[in-house]
Structure formats: C-alpha cells, structure tokens
Amino acid sequence: MGDILFLTHRVPWPPNRGDKIRAHHILRKLMQYAPVHLACFADDEKETIEDSVVKTGLASVEIVRRTKSNMQAGIEAIISGKPVSLTSFDSDKIRKYVTDTIKTYNIDCIFVFSGQMAQYIPANFSGRVIMDFADVDSAKFESYADEGAGPMAWVNRREGKMLGAFERQVAERADYSLFVSQAEAQLFRQRSGLDDQKVKAVGNGIDLDFYDPNKAIATELESGGPLIIFTGQMDYRPNIEAVISFSKEVMPDILKQHPDAKFAIVGRAPTADVARLDGQYGTIVIGSVDDIRCWLKAADIVVAPLRIARGIQNKVLEAMAMGKAVVASSAAAQGIEAVDGHHFQVAASPAEEAKRVCELLSDPQNAKTLGDNAAALIRETYSWDHRLADIACLCGLDEPERLEAAE
Predict the structure, then answer these.
(1) What's the average model confidence in pLDDT over 26-47?
(2) Do 264 and 310 lie in a common domain?
C-alpha cells in the first residue's frame, strides 16, 4: 500500500467544530495505516502555524490561508459558471501541491473531505478516490432558497442547482461517497441515481475520553435559576437562525413558568444579530469559551432548535455524552440513533420545544434519567473507533499493515 493524500477545507486541528471534528478523527485513523499528506485551508494566521501532534505525524503538509472575500468568490463564480462553494476554495497553491505530491510520492488513495475540495482531484489520477461529502450541501442551499426571497433566494437556488450537478459528477468519479447518516446517504442516492455500493453512511462519533462529565467543573452563573444552553459556531447561518428563534419564540413561554430561567448561547464568533439577543427574554450571549464541557456540565437542559439541519449534529451527541437532557428539533434529531422520550426529547415546533423544556425543568428526576440514558447510549455505540471501523477497508488499507509507529 502506498501513501494517502488527504484534502480538507479546514485545518483539522484542534477538533473544536463539527466539520473539523470529523476530519480530525478520520485523518488520525488513516495515519495508523499509511503515510498521509495533507492539504487544507486556514481561516486565519493562527491556524497556519498552530502546532498539533497530528501535524507532526504527517508525511507532508500544505496549509493555505484563505483570504478571498465572499464578494470576490461570487464574482468569480458568475464569470466562471461555477458554484460559489468552489470558487471560495480555489487555490493555485493547493493545486500545485496536489500535482507535486502525486509526482513525488506513491499516492494510492486520495481522501477528500468536503465537496469544495473535490475540484483538486486530478483528472488523470488512477488510484482510489474516497469522497466524504458528510452532508448533501446542495440540498441545504435549496432549503435556503425555498425559505428566502429576493436576490439571495436566486443566489442560493443557483448554488443548489450547480453544486448538485457537481456533487453527482464527483460521486460518479469516486470509488465511494460517504455521508454522516443513512438519511443523508439515501437522499443522495435518490438525487444521484447511484446505489448503496458506491454511496455509504459513515456516522460521526464522540471523543468519549474528552466528553466525560467526571472531568469537567461546572460553570457558575451569578444569577441562579435553571440554565438552558445552546452550543455551536455562531457565525453559521443555521445556528444563528436557531438561537434567534429560540430566544424570541420559545423563551417567552418558558419564562411564564420559570421566570428565572436563563438561555445561554455558547460558541465562537457570534454575529451582530446574535449579540443583540443578549439581555432579551433571559438570553445571555457568552461567545467563545475555553472548555465547552464546563457549560454542558452546568446546564439543566441543552437545546438544539435548528430549523434547517443536515446530517448529524455533534452538539447533540456531545451533550448526550455529558449526560444532559437534550430537547432537539425534528431537523436536529435526524440521523441520531436514539429514541424520543428515552434518550432525548424531539420537538416538532417552537411551541412544543417550550412545552418539553418546561416539563423537564419541572421534573429534574426525569431530566436526569433522560441524560443517564443518553450517556449510556453514546458510550455504547458512538465511539470513533466504532464509527470508523470500516474506513480503512474503504480506502483499500488492510488491518495487518497498520504502521508500527501508530500502535
């Protein structure tokens, strides 16, 4: 077996957001079997120089700072007739690195994480190609278009159509296309016409050692009362829409029964729209924190009120691993192998979210039982080793050939 070339749209360390978490653990798994070369983008200068045990174990690495503005990417997309998702991540440096790496090393497999990076698969590459789409991104943009109006609706409709065509083209080229859940995989099979021999589900896992409630000290708020929290990257549109909806539509009903309840929004880069929620309807905007586990440990209820969601929500799995009662929207619960009412609570509307949260706040023992059941489920079936058990085989790697250095 030769080397692996791993392409991903973000630096896969530290594993502190959904896409980086999945890429990080897959990369670490592959490094156990073969030398891996990595090409990726950095969102800021810090990421280009940040050290990591994973980074030092790579055969070679190319990290390119992404500086292209959304406006520039949009103009390039219109001129070139490509999706914005591709022009945003277009780089001559990455393209040269891919070409040089394939010429210099014996690359048997290219593993592509996220559709934006599939544009770097050389047309003449004869080795194995594994495409991890994670989610059906084109369907997300179609949802944005259906819910929007005006110029942005046109932009999102164009993106959904063009990205969908590109996804199908890439999947036909790849040996396997991977998705985070059976629901996403089945949706793509329907859209692409490909069968389950080429389109497979490889679910997300949880770092069970890290998300151990016994290893965290709960954050303390100055004001008492029940604490409801939401975690996530707060410049990501689905997360923004989720917290705005929960704060304005759900919290007023909760406050009628629990007037001292607080809703904490915990996550990096809150936008101006998110920041304006601070102080309204018991909402507190926390922003970035050093250790998310401290907030999860302190929470009475964790909510995931996403109105648009694709694939598996890591935020839900993390809260469940910490033994917390979770109230999730129907969209956020998709793909999670858990039972409504036993492992978590699923709510079909903002009104039902308020009802479920209030019931749990009024019955702490039921909330504790729900959290205990959730933690047991995650520890039984959601370890990364369990979830990635087949990844080496899909890449053409044999178990006996595992590198000694990774043992």
Answers:
(1) 95
(2) yes
Domain coverage including residue 88: 3-205+384-406
CA pseudo-torsion sign 33, 118, 240, 66: positive
CATH for 360? 3.40.50.2000
Q: What is the pTM of this model?
A: 0.84
191: helix, strand or coil: helix
Structure tokens at 212: 């151990």
Same-domain status, 109 and 246: no
Residue 351 shares a structural domain with residue 269: yes
Residues 222, 186 contacting (CB under 8 angstroms): no
Mean pLDDT of 78-103: 97
Burial 17-34 (b: 16+ CB within 10 A, else e): bbbbbbbbbbbbbbbbbb
Tokens of 321: 């691993």
d(CA 126, CA 168): 19
Min mean pLDDT across 193-202, 210-219, 273-282, 396-405 is at 396-405
DSSP β-bridge partners for residue 176: 130
Q: What are phi and psi of 311, to 5 degrees?
A: 70, -145
In contact, 9 and 135? CB cutoff 8 Å: no
Tally Cβ neighbours within 10 Å of residue 49.
Answer: 8
- CA distances (Å), 197 to each of 111, 154, 189, 192, 282, in order? 18, 35, 10, 13, 50
Angle, CA of 125, 131 and 132, to the nearest 5° = 155
> Do 234 and 276 form a contact (C-beta atoms < 8 A)?
no
Radius of gyration of the chain from Cα atoms? 22
Say how many CA atoms lie within 13 Å of 219 toward its Cβ.
19
